[in-house]
Amino acid sequence: MNQTLLTAFFIIAGTVVMILLVYRATHWLVGREPESVTKELSGSVLGRVSALHALILGLVFAQLALDYRVLQTDLGSEADTVRQIVTDAQLHGGAGTEDIIAGAKDYIDVVVTQEWQDLASAKAVGSAGRTAWLEIYQGTLNLESDTAVQKRLHDNLVAKARALDTFRSKRLNIASGSNQVPFWFAAIAGLVIISVSYFAFAPSGLNIVFVALFGVYNGITLFLIYAFANPYVPPGALEPVALSHVRVLIGQ
Asked: Who contacts 215 (Cβ-Cβ below 8 Å, separation ≥6)?
């Protein structure tokens, strides 16, 4: 069993076990036959907390999934920008273009072999990547252009070098992340309160199955949120495949 499946199993199983334990313990403490008024109050609390809990999980999951998708798109755009810089430098052909091309290759190498690991380990400084980017940017600024075509390509190179730094900054910001502790507190507290509210329903075989299914679904949702929370580490880690592909292309 690989690491991703193992993590998913523990999160889902842990959620189910927690919900069932709270459910059975609460029912045992309260008694087998709560009053009708108590059942109505339990149902009211259950409905309201369940709605808020589902809203919290849905909003967090949607935001993380969107950030994940944006990072995928930006990673492709970053790789394409490096490729365009190399292409424009080759078309320019003036003095200094070889330094720009070499800088682009160094940039990809640094990002893939060093900066990506720093992002995964929460060391989102990115100093090595910025140094490599500065090599490209300074090369574009110092590029000498004589013809009208070279001047146009020069302007494009400067603009694309700046765009490349924007993509880098966005990657670093995502790696810095946000404080997930309040969300996990709210998510676990919601599950506990919902499980407590189930006490009005006797723990028959069928009821236990339905409560367990509730736990399975919430466990799956929590696992997906956990996987998307940091796109640089397993189980939802993205790999810089697009940059590696461009490195092969420009290295030929």
From this structure: 12, 15, 16, 17, 18, 19, 20, 191
Rounded (5°) CA angle 4-232-249: 110
Contacts (Cβ under 8 Å, ≥6 apart) of 71 = 170, 171, 174, 231, 238
> Helical H runs in 177-232?
181-197, 205-229
Alpha-carbon Rg for the chain, nearest whole angstrom, is 27
CB of 52 within 8 A of CB of 187?
Answer: no
Helices (H) and strands (E) in the chain, counts: 9, 0
Residue 198 identity: Y
Entry pTM:
0.78
Beta carbons of 242 and 250 less than 8 angstroms apart = no
Q: What digits encode the pLDDT tens for the residues 27-80?
A: 888 766 666 767 777 778 888 888 888 898 988 888 888 888 888 899 999 999
Backbone phi, psi, residue 52, to 5°: -65, -40
